[in-house]
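Posted in: Structural Biology > Protein-Ligand Complexes

Title: Requesting predicted complex, magnesium ion in pocket

I'd be grateful if someone could produce the 3D structure tokens for the following input. Sequence and ligand are given below.
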Amino acid sequence: MKITLSVIKADVGSIGGHIKPSAKLKGTVEEFVRERGKKLLIDCYVSSTGDDVALLMSHERGIDDSKVHELAWDAFMAGTQEAKSQGLYGAGQDLLKEAFSGNVRGLGPASCELEFEERPGEPFVFFAADKTDPGAYNLPLYLAFADPMHCAGLLLSPKMAHGFTFTIMDVNHTEGDRVIELNAPEELYDIACLLRDNERFVVESIRARATGDVAAVVSTSRLHNIAGTYTGKDDPVALVRTQGNFPATGEVLSPYRLGHYVAGTMRGSHNGPLMPVKLNSTISFFDGPPVVTGAAFCVHEGKFTEPVDVFDHPFWDWVRNNVSQKAAEIRQQGFSGPAMLPYSELEYGGVVEKLGHLEKRFTVRKEDGSGHRHKAA
Ligand code: F6R
Ligand code: MG
Ligand code: MG
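-- Reply #1 --
Done. Output follows.
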């Protein structure tokens, strides 16, 4: 059976700052999708990660289906009404346009979708991250699909020996989708060369070269590029099929033990380590640290099993302690150097404005010694 998995997520309001949506908001969104989606969807799972609500939906309508996208948009509109009625903070924050038009892309919510022929056993992991942007998945996906230090299957499984094709998007290009396809392992250095720049080049999807089957997809939207001003971070979602011709679930999870530094914490303007957390986790220290959740499922004829929380295990408690230490370390240096994002990525206008004022006060010293340098008193 050919099915489509669609994830559409948005921040439409939360309690106590940019922390977590209310149970009522989530309930409203879920009820809406279940009720109105009866004819469209086979199944759905509604969850939150930090202040974002994500809808994972299964159906047979293919990717970019306007009815499915409209259902999600309308559900987030209903969630926004609920957020307003409860006085939640940032109600409707990610719904950047007045009306729905064909597809949620470019309207604010993030989405990623997979269409495939179901295997007899079809395991996959749904990842959601908060306080970061889509490039946060670059390193974990590179390591899981192209590095035998994390993916033993690249050595051990003949099915995986052909490697994977990475489709990478230049998210700075706003006039259309600017993409490149690169093959691992032959073009590993080219892949790494692009993926080092998490703010510009983002893994959009990965395919198995042996079969052409799609293995992973990531939401690539950048609110920063849609709205032109700060409206929140992108808080990306991803779907990764696992096992068989694809990396094992444990290989896909392996890179998350690093807690690599990613952009997005506090005012969308600082680097922090990506912490793998339990499902439905909240946000805390310094409006962060950036977090990622993982829900593993099997899907059969479009029906989901219950989710398994992949980061709810004693091993990840140890990782979270280490990542907390990394978060504290980088915070020691406050605004200095790599702790804060570069000029082009700052999400609030304050620094740019200040530099504008200070520009006028800079002077250039004269060569003839008439400037102030070392002038005797
Ligand atoms: C939101 C985020 C937060 C906010 C900060 C200030 O995703 O990253 O760090 O930027 O809490 O929020 P505002 O500007 O809404 O008061
Ligand atoms: Mg928010
Ligand atoms: Mg968020």
